[in-house]
Amino acid sequence: MTLPQKPTDQAAAPPNLAGSLNESEIARFTQRRNGRRRPFTAEQRVIPIVDGRPAKDLARDVHFHDISVSGVAFRWRRPPEFEEAIVILDILPKSIFLRVRVERCSVICQSPRTFVVGCSFMERLKAI
Questions:
Q1: Contact 80, 74 (CB under 8 A)
Q2: pLDDT value, residue 27
Q3: Are 37 and 72 in contact (CB under 8 A)?
Q4: Up-side HSE of residue 67: CA atoms within 13 Å toward CB?
Q5: Which of 37, 57, 120, 127 would bridge 66 by S-S if both were Cys, CB 3.0 to 4.6 A apart?
Q6: How far is it, in rounded angstroms, from Cα 75 to Cα 121?
């Protein structure tokens, strides 16, 4: 009996281009997050989790990059020194609190140096 293949969350490069692209170009075609990404340029609050607790003194209002059903990406001034955070989406009439895990970080601008931090949703919280 053969088991079904585990679904992957990465899409392959288009087959007609795969042989002519280098590794970094192929990475542009790779979708790391399940679900379609949507632009999401609002400013929202991110609170890093340090030692298992929200570090409210490290909270920042940041510009978000995009959002999907499984994750979100936002701009950060340096590589994050945290692995998890709480994202607060202020969507009227109430705020939504989401615990996220940092999945990737890459430079999107050299001057001023800016990173995009990609995160996956872990759980929805009632409050912090």
A1: no
A2: 42
A3: no
A4: 12
A5: 37
A6: 17
Tokens of 34: 């399940």
Rounding to the nearest 10 degrees, give the CA dihedral for residues 81, 10, 66, 70. -80
Residue 37's pLDDT band (boundaries 50, 70, 90)?
confident
* Phi, psi angle pair for 28, to nearest 5°: -60, -30
Beta-carbon contacts of residue 102 (< 8 Å; ≥ 6 apart): 80, 82, 83, 84, 85, 117, 118, 119
pLDDT digits (tens, 9 = 90+) for 41-95: 889 999 999 999 999 999 999 999 999 999 999 999 999 999 999 999 988 788 9
Amino acid at 38: R
Residue 63 one-letter amino acid: H
